[in-house]
């Protein structure tokens, strides 16, 4: 008779391996929907399609978070799933927001004023939005091949950090701005230049080696369910009542956190250097 200690752990059924991939497929479907809505906004001139595209990108984030968690919970993580997840992120958080950023921020500029200058701004905007996509893809590639990444500005040892802004967060920043304005496209060329600089900066944050809090040390299985329910309620209710303000506040706060952590680390390092002299 085989002892209990000698029994091999039960392998998950083959059908269970499909479950995480279904969430990844949902991620791709939402990204495809966001691209189609952005194109529909240009063809019809209806800004509501831009808003739907932005909401779709934000809605894809739970799919991206759940596929990996479900794979770990069901012990069905695989190399195929990891590669599919990366490809899904490139589509949903790379291609979709870059198209949205260009069409919303530059393509809808009115045909008035200095048309040559308008065309040059549109061309530069097209390049910057493409650069955003390249930065996001590079960020994913670096994440996939790096075993233990170390940021330029190390944080607390009891916390886990991303090196560079994650591509879902960068896409969320773009989507939150569009949604905050209800999809109404930019119609001022000087504001378009500000948008161009902002998109370029977010792209830079993805390929930077600055630290961004990952929150992976939070274990939702621990603690009291009642407290967790209250926290979820406090987080969900503002999203339904004031989704525009809530999303852009969260997105910009996360962006400012990365900038502030880098600046504060450099300032503290200079102070320690001066004190040692």
From TrEMBL:
Keyword field contains Signal: no
Gene3D superfamilies, A to Z: 1.20.120.1760
Sequence intervals crossing the membrane: 15-34, 124-141, 161-178, 190-207, 228-257
GO molecular function: CDP-diacylglycerol-serine O-phosphatidyltransferase activity
GO BP annotations listed: phospholipid biosynthetic process
Coiled coil residues, start to end: none
Keyword flag Amino-acid biosynthesis: no
Origin: domain of life: Bacteria
E.C. code: 2.7.8.8
Location of the protein in the cell: Endomembrane system
Enzyme class (EC, first level): transferase
Bilayer topology annotation: Multi-pass membrane protein
Reaction it catalyzes: a CDP-1,2-diacyl-sn-glycerol + L-serine = a 1,2-diacyl-sn-glycero-3-phospho-L-serine + CMP + H(+)
Pfam family, one: CDP-OH_P_transf
PROSITE patterns in alphabetical order: CDP_ALCOHOL_P_TRANSF
Sorted UniProt keywords: Lipid biosynthesis, Lipid metabolism, Membrane, Phospholipid biosynthesis, Phospholipid metabolism, Transferase, Transmembrane, Transmembrane helix
GO CC terms, sorted: endomembrane system; membrane
Cross-referenced NCBIfam families: pssA
Family, as annotated: Belongs to the CDP-alcohol phosphatidyltransferase class-I family.
PANTHER family reported for this sequence: CDP-DIACYLGLYCEROL--GLYCEROL-3-PHOSPHATE 3-PHOSPHATIDYLTRANSFERASE-RELATED, CDP-DIACYLGLYCEROL--SERINE O-PHOSPHATIDYLTRANSFERASE
Protein's UniProt name: CDP-diacylglycerol--serine O-phosphatidyltransferase
Taxonomic lineage of the native organism: Bacteria, Pseudomonadati, Acidobacteriota, Terriglobia, Terriglobales
């Amino acid at each position: 008779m085989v002892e209990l200690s000698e029994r091999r752990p039960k392998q998950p059924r083959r059908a269970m391996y499909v479950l995480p991939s279904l969430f990844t497929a949902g991620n791709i479907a939402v990204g495809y929907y966001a691209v189609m809505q952005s194109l529909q906004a240009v063809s019809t001139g209806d800004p509501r399609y831009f808003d739907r595209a932005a909401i779709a990108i934000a809605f894809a984030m739970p799919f991206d978070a759940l596929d990996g968690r479900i794979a770990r919970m069901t012990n069905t993580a695989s190399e195929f799933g990891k590669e599919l997840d990366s490809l899904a992120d490139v589509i949903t958080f790379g291609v979709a927001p870059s198209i949205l950023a260009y069409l919303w921020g530059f393509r809808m500029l009115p045909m008035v004023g200095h048309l040559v200058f308008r065309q040059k701004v549109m061309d530069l905007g097209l390049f910057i939005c493409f650069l955003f996509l390249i930065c996001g893809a590079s960020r994913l590639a670096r994440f996939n091949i790096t075993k233990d990444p170390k940021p330029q500005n190390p944080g607390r040892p009891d916390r886990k950090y991303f090196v560079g802004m994650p591509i879902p967060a960068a896409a969320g920043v773009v989507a939150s701005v569009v949604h905050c304005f209800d999809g109404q496209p930019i119609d001022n060329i000087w504001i378009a230049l500000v948008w161009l600089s902002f998109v370029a900066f977010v792209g830079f944050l993805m390929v930077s080696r600055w630290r961004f809090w990952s929150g992976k040390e939070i274990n939702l299985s621990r603690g009291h369910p009642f407290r967790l329910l209250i926290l979820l309620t406090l987080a969900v209710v503002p999203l339904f009542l004031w989704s525009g303000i809530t999303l852009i506040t969260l997105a910009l706060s996360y962006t400012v956190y990365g900038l502030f952590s880098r600046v504060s680390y450099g300032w503290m390092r200079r102070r320690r250097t001066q004190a040692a002299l």
